[in-house]
Amino acid sequence: MSVISELGRPVFYLICGGIVLFVAVICVVFAVRAYRAGKAIGMDVSKMRRAVIASATFAVLPSIGILLGVIALSGSLGTPWPWLRLSVIGALHYETQVAEAAAEAVGTGGLSASRMTAEAFSTIALVMSICIMWGMVFAVISCKAYSRKLLEPKPVRKDKKKRGPDMMAFGDTAMTAMFIGLVSTYIGSYAGTFISGGEGGRLSFTGSLLPLAVALVGALAMGGFTLLREKKKAEWIDGFSVAGSMLIAMTAAIFLGKIL
């Protein structure tokens, strides 16, 4: 029996499904308590209901991108594990990148069902878990103090330019820099393969040029969503931009892979 078949056994669905169900119940409990708290402090019930409906509606398209991530990872990691990761704590760009990096590190040549072994899956799952757990750990240790600091009034120094509302906080800047670094690393590897003449001295379109072309299409799509949001003052587009860019890029990958 193959590793993928083993990873799809009912016991794995039971374990992962139990965890997902527990988190879903917690979300419902918090939603109900938040709704009751809003009524208790005198918030407009009709506005709260509109907010609930709008949030549920705008969550549909971004969730499609998460579903695509589950489908993409299921081919090499089975269905229960990607379902658990992307339903509870994982982020789409994180899970796919870390899984791919771990797979290459263990010598499977990337996420491949035919080359996946029990040892490789264990290593990939362990790396994916350890690398993302620190957000929870740091939240437990420092979230209370950090939240209290956010509520403190910040003195304004006369010799310094006043911080404007449109300036990003350090956390946003650090996250953006980290994400740019990750993207640059992957794009740089494909660009280096192309410039050096391909792996083993052979230039492959699917191995170097196709990923670069798809990355360009995704970047253009994201730029289009950002421009549309700024021109139309439509903040709600932010919830659709990542999933929309992914769908456009994936479509481009299929189209370019077929015709070239």
Summarize the structure.
The protein has 260 residues and is mainly alpha-helical.
Outline the structure in words.
By secondary structure, the chain is mainly alpha-helical. It folds into 2 domains: 1-144, no CATH class; 176-260, no CATH class. Helix content is 77%, strand content 0%.
Descriptive tags:
0% strand; 2 domains; 260 residues; mainly alpha
Stretches where pLDDT is under 50 for at least 5 consecutive residues are: 163-168
Rg: 22 Å
Give the overall shape, derived from the CA principal axes: globular
- The amount of beta strand, in percent, is under 5%
- Into how many domains do the coordinates divide? 2
**Average residue pLDDT:** 79
Q: How many β-strand runs?
A: 0
What level of helicity do the residues show?
over 70%
SS field, number of helical segments: 11
Structural class: mainly alpha
Query: What's the story with the biggest beta sheet?
Result: none
The helix/strand order is HHHHHHHHHHH
